[in-house]
Write a structure and sequence with these properties.
Elements lengths: L1 H9 L2 E6 L2 H4 L18 H4 L2 H6 L1 H17 L4 H12 L2 E6 L5 H5 L4 E3 L2 E8 L5 E3 L18 E5 L8 H13 L2 E5 L11 H7 L3 E6 L11 E4 L2 H8 L2
Parallel strand pairs: 1-2, 1-7, 2-3, 7-8, 8-9
Antiparallel strand pairs: 4-5, 4-6
Helix pairs in contact: 6-10, 8-9
The protein binds 2'-O-acetyl adenosine-5-diphosphoribose (OAD).
The site of 2'-O-acetyl adenosine-5-diphosphoribose (OAD) has 28 residues, from helix 2 and strand 8.
Length: 236
């Protein structure tokens, strides 16, 4: 822990990659942990364009459930620690796979949302994307003013990440002196690829996770425990 703390303190540029685990202590179930299975569906069965084409109401019911949970949740000490780190670091980029917006609410600013934002909705007919912050939508699936079907403004399995966001994430990971990886199983690509990419480019990689991951043996420092406890200590 002490060594990792020193790497962070002395780094001119820090990048962070977060996943669902950082929001677990806010009460939002992770995808592959307890509570991740909703009505017996795994995320890979619902978060796809094919699932939406087959049954948009079902997919929307899952997002509606998640939006409801997220609306009730508060950012936790892990989110706040990262916002504090950003305020101190010379160069800082927060790359997140999360769509819940809790990093924004904790005060983080330079956020790259690789998988979009659950509070955005996009029309499948006219392509218009807008915010809709209502935790419960009056009608599922929701419709655009043009009459088209609205979908969540997130990235699904099999879809490309927003190219500009991805380019900026790669640049930040490639230029970082430290990459902090918190609360992700790091099994979903291309996001997970940022970990070896940063390491090959010379970054010290620090992992914070309650469990071992596929990358634990590859990183420079693997810290085991809840992000809400470890991250505040790491930046203190
Ligand atoms: P996962 O559910 O795959 O992994 C969550 C990780 O967080 C696991 O490694 C847990 O051990 C860890 N974890 C749980 N609680 C924690 C805590 N309190 N502190 C620290 N770590 C904790 O979630 P992601 O890695 O985010 O994509 O999943 C990646 C992507 O797969 C998601 O963005 C989503 C999903 O399907 C799409 O929907 C495209």
């Amino acid at each position: 822990m002490q060594q990792a703390r020193e790497w962070i303190q002395s780094a001119a540029s820090v990048a962070v990659l977060t996943g669902a685990g950082i929001s677990a202590e806010s009460g939002i179930p992770t995808f592959r942990g307890p509570g991740g299975v909703w009505r017996s569906f795994r995320p890979e069965e619902l978060a796809t364009p094919q699932a939406f084409a087959r049954d948009p109401k079902l997919v929307w019911e899952w997002y509606d459930w998640r939006r409801g949970l997220i609306a009730e949740a508060q950012p936790n000490a892990g989110h706040h620690a990262l916002a504090e780190l950003e305020a101190r670091a010379a160069r800082f980029t927060l790359i997140t796979q999360n769509v819940d917006g809790l990093h924004d609410r904790a005060g983080s600013r330079n956020i790259l949302k690789l998988h979009g934002d659950i509070w955005n909705v996009r029309c499948q007919s006219c392509g218009r994307e807008r915010r809709d912050l209502r935790p419960k939508l009056p009608e599922l699936p929701p419709r655009c003013d043009c009459g088209g079907l609205l979908r969540p403004g997130v990235v699904w399995f099999g879809e490309a990440l927003p190219p500009e966001v991805w380019e900026r994430a790669e640049a930040a990971a490639g230029a970082a002196e430290v990459l902090l990886v918190a609360g992700t199983s790091a099994v979903v690509y291309p996001a997970a690829g940022l970990v070896p990419y940063a390491r090959q480019a010379g970054a010290k990689v620090i992992e914070v996770n309650v469990d071992e991951t596929a990358f634990s043996h590859l990183v420079d420092c693997s810290l085991r425990g809840p992000a809400g406890q470890i991250l505040p200590r790491l930046i203190s």
